[in-house]
Amino acid sequence: MSAGSGGIFFFTGSHPLANTPRCLLSCVASVARRPIRAYTRVLMNYVENPPNPWLTHSVEWLGEPPEAKLEVFEETQTRQIITHNDSPDVGFDYTVNCYRGCIHGCTYCFSRPTHEYLGYGAGTDFDRKIVVKVNAPKLLRKELMKPSWKGAEIVFSFTSDPYIPLEAHYKLTRQCLEVCAEFRQPIGVITKSALIRRDIDVLQQLARDTHLGVFFTIPFTDREVARAVEPYAPLPDARFHAMADLAAAGITVGIGIAPVIPGLSTELPILLKRAKEAGATLAFINMLRLPGSVAPYFEERLREKLPTKANRVINRILEARGGKMNSSKFGERMRGKGEYWAATERLFKIHCERLGFNRTNKRVPRGETTFRRPTAQASLFG
After folding, report:
1. CA-to-CA separations, 109 to 2, 40, 129, 293, 307, in angstroms, rounded
2. Which of 171, 108, 88, 98 is nearest to 140 (CA)?
3. CB atoms within 10 A of CB 200
4. How far apart are alpha carbons 112 and 127 in whole angstroms?
5. What is the pLDDT of residues 330-368, one digit of tens each?
6. Whether residues 33 and 82 fall in one domain
7. What's the pTM?
8. Which residue has the higher pLDDT, 174 or 157?
9. Nearest CA to 50 among 99, 11, 5?
10. 78 and 170 assigned to the same domain
11. Is 219 within a domain?
12. Fewer C-beta neighbours within 10 Å, C or N terminus of the chain?
């Protein structure tokens, strides 16, 4: 067994798995101020002819396709699908991610460094080497059946968009939502994709039986800016239309003005007004996060696609981050500093109050849940 960069191990020689086509093991070490002692092995099969994520009626494709071909790896031995988040400045404790990597290609995505754990890059590899957790629905059911699970809210997703174009083929997010509906499991969804409209029927059932909130992240309305920093994501208009469709179906929807990019995010009142017109009742903002290798990738793309705005944006980011491109401190990661960020928060609060956002709390109160495990008798009567 030979080691590759970033903790990726390939089987070679006489190992029993050496002949598995393009198989690889992701070795994730648990490090707590001590040497690496144990690995979690995840077997992934390379998909020789992956489904074309853009050849479907369910996905709106605008702009040019990625320059390099899409590569898909099916992760077949995932051991756990519910991830616990212990960050004090994130508003939820548990997430489910059916995919790793994201075809939307948002240059600012804070999840990009997670691809480095697999030995891939945080740049274009994150957009074009997609890991699919094909056993996600089965694992989710298994974990919800455990007596230790108490029904806390689960958010889809965190390290990827739950409705990337490949979801049109794999339907893993939909299957997981169907499992959650069966358990009356409270959930939240954060997405940029209009593909979520395909699952309105399941979302309606969740909205009826448990706590549900769907947020669309829309940081701009300007098409030029959106194409420059979110090159393969649905355009803002498509997201607002999807938001309106879900709201009309009785589903609680909200807008996430996230990330706020200093120097680019200049349309906050317009975004909130359009979201209100589309039926949104909830709203939040987050400051741009550029951890690790994301910062140089973001700056490179910014200077390439928006050269006349790049210096102003970089200077504003430095101003809002106290002279740095990023802050990893809890309590500071999601918020900025200085006059710019203070003015942004005031503007957001004023317009939220004026438009009536966040007047009702649709989040699950801690200690309360609608969760229940289905029984054979219950399944007979719905």
Report:
1. 31, 26, 15, 11, 20
2. 98
3. 17
4. 9
5. 767 778 888 888 999 999 999 999 999 999 765 555 567
6. no
7. 0.83
8. 174
9. 99
10. yes
11. yes
12. C
**38 and 71 both lie in a single domain:** no
Between the CA of residue 106 and those of 117, 161, 307, 369, what are the distances in Å?
Answer: 19, 11, 17, 34
- Residue recorded with tokens 């954060």: 190
Among 32, 47, 62, give the residue marking a domain's end.
47
Give me the pLDDT at residue 373, please.
95
Structural domain total, the chain? 2
Residues 32 and 155 in one domain: no
Query: Do β-strands 253-260 and 212-217 pair in parallel, antiparallel, or remain unpaired?
Result: parallel
H helix or E strand, kind and range, residue 274: helix 268-277
The verdict on 201 and 57 lying in the same domain is yes
Are residues 14 and 106 in contact, defined by beta-carbon separation less than 8 angstroms?
no
Same domain, 29 and 122: no
Domain span at 191: 49-359
Residue 28 has a pLDDT of 28
pLDDT digits (tens, 9 = 90+) for 226-281: 999 999 999 999 999 999 999 999 999 999 999 999 999 889 999 999 999 999 99
Banded pLDDT at 82 (limits 50, 70, 90): very high
Judge whether 18 lies within some domain.
yes
Model confidence at 169, in pLDDT bands (50, 70, 90)?
very high
In a domain, 330, yes or no: yes
Phi then psi for residue 44, to 5 deg, are: -130, 135
Asked if residue 39 belongs to a domain, the reply is yes
Q: Are residues 39 and 96 in the same domain?
A: no
What is the number of residues in the chain?
382
Assess whether pLDDT exceeds 60 at residue 378: no
Q: Average pLDDT for residues 70-90, to the nearest whole number?
A: 86
The proportion of the chain whose per-residue pLDDT surpasses 90, expressed as a percent, equals: 64
Verify that 169 and 204 share a domain, yes or no.
yes
CATH number at residue 304: 3.20.20.70
Cα dist from 201 to 92, 137, 251, 344, whole Å:
25, 18, 10, 37
The pLDDT value recorded for residue 55 is: 57
Q: Out of 27, 47, 67, pick the residue that ends a domain.
A: 47
Instruction: Using alpha carbons, select from 340, 200, 203, 189 the residue that is nearest to residue 260.
Output: 340
Question: Which residue, chain included where needed, has tokens 């997981």?
Answer: 176
